[in-house]
């Protein structure tokens, strides 16, 4: 279990990632705020605590692999890669424009991006292949794949889940961002997948369920996953779409929405208020 100082530091990092999201979104630009912000704590824990990464070399052979299968949430990955120093923050204002290098979905031309995952439902298949390749090479690196709960209804994801169990891919950790909303509304109304824990268990996976915004639970779950042998592990993280921004929380309109000046100002104030609370906890 991580100590209190580490947990607070990771919470501050998650807050900085949300601050970076606002820089990328700005005023009047369409962007995936909701599904990016729901991942802030998880991405902070992965990049700045759990995963082996080399700040000086995004292609270091010793690195762990991270795949954002729900590729439309790439803004949160950009936010983390910038904090690592892989991409300059000067690119934030040019996201999703011809003037910039950061696209609206993962692109392998971006340092730190391992695969193109713009077409959802394919990331777990890629992750299984990467994990098997690492095992064949007798490398201790791990692979982490983040999926959306809406994404679970498409692609070859469940074929990959079966293959991961069949080949005992225990160097793979899947994470489901279970924010219960997708582009057009609640997942339960569009394509419900009931009994999610039982579903993954039926596919042979070790299942851990957590609060995806509680840093202590995230860190503990990631640590437990590395100790499981013989089967892959999936962490089902219950999250809130748009977490950290009251106007976006649980609001499908901000799956891919726009902030006007008033809402943007509110978002900045909410970030500063959250930062003040964290400062008092130090």
User: What proportion of the residues form beta strands (DSSP E)?
Assistant: 5-15%
Give the N-to-C terminal Cα separation: 18 Å
**What form results from the Cα inertia axes?**
globular
Total strands: 7
Structural class: alpha/beta
Helix proportion range? 40-55%
Low-confidence stretches: none
Radius of gyration: 18 Å
The CATH topology annotation reads as Rossmann fold
Q: Tell me the name of the CATH class.
A: Alpha Beta
Mean pLDDT: 95
Number of helices in the DSSP assignment: 10
Q: How would you name the CATH homologous superfamily?
A: Thiamin diphosphate (ThDP)-binding fold, Pyr/PP domains
How many domains make up the coordinates? 1
User: Which strand order do you get reading across the main beta sheet?
Assistant: 1-2-3-7-6
Biggest pleated sheet: 5 strands, parallel
**How do the helices and strands follow one another from N- to C-terminus?**
HHHEHHEHEEEHHEHEH
CATH architectural designation: 3-Layer(aba) Sandwich
Summarize this entry quickly:
The protein is an alpha/beta fold and about 280 residues long. The protein has helices spanning about 5-25, 35, 40-50, 75-85, 125-135, 155-165, 185-190, 195-200, 215-225, 260-280; strands at about 65-70, 145-150, 170-180, 180, 185, 205-210, 235-240. About 40% of the residues lie in helices and about 10% in strands.
């Amino acid at each position: 279990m991580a100590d209190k100082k580490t947990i607070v530091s990771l919470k501050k990092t998650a807050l900085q990632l949300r601050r970076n999201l606002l820089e990328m979104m700005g005023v009047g630009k369409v962007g995936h705020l909701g599904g990016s912000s729901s991942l802030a704590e998880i991405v902070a824990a992965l990049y700045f605590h759990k995963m082996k990464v080399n700040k000086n070399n995004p292609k270091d052979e010793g690195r762990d692999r991270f795949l954002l299968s729900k590729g439309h949430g790439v803004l949160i990955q950009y936010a983390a890669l910038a904090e690592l120093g892989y991409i300059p923050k000067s690119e934030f204002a040019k996201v999703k424009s011809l003037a910039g290098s950061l696209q609206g979905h993962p692109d392998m031309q971006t340092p730190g991006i391992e695969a193109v995952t713009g077409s959802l439902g394919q990331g777990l298949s890629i992750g299984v292949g990467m994990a098997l390749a690492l095992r064949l090479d007798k490398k201790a690196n791990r692979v982490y794949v983040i999926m959306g709960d809406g994404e679970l209804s498409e692609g070859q994801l469940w074929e990959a889940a079966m293959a991961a169990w069949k080949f005992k891919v225990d160097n793979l950790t899947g994470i489901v961002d279970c924010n219960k909303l997708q582009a057009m509304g609640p997942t339960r109304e569009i394509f419900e997948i009931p009994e999610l824990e039982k579903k993954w268990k039926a596919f042979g996976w070790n299942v851990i369920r957590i609060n995806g915004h509680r840093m202590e639970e995230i860190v503990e779950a990631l640590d437990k996953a590395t100790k499981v042998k013989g089967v892959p592990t999936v962490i089902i993280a219950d999250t809130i779409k748009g977490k950290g921004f009251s106007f976006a929380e649980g609001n499908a309109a901000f799956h891919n929405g726009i902030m006007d000046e008033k809402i943007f100002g509110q978002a900045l104030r909410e970030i500063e208020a959250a930062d003040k609370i964290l400062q008092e906890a130090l």
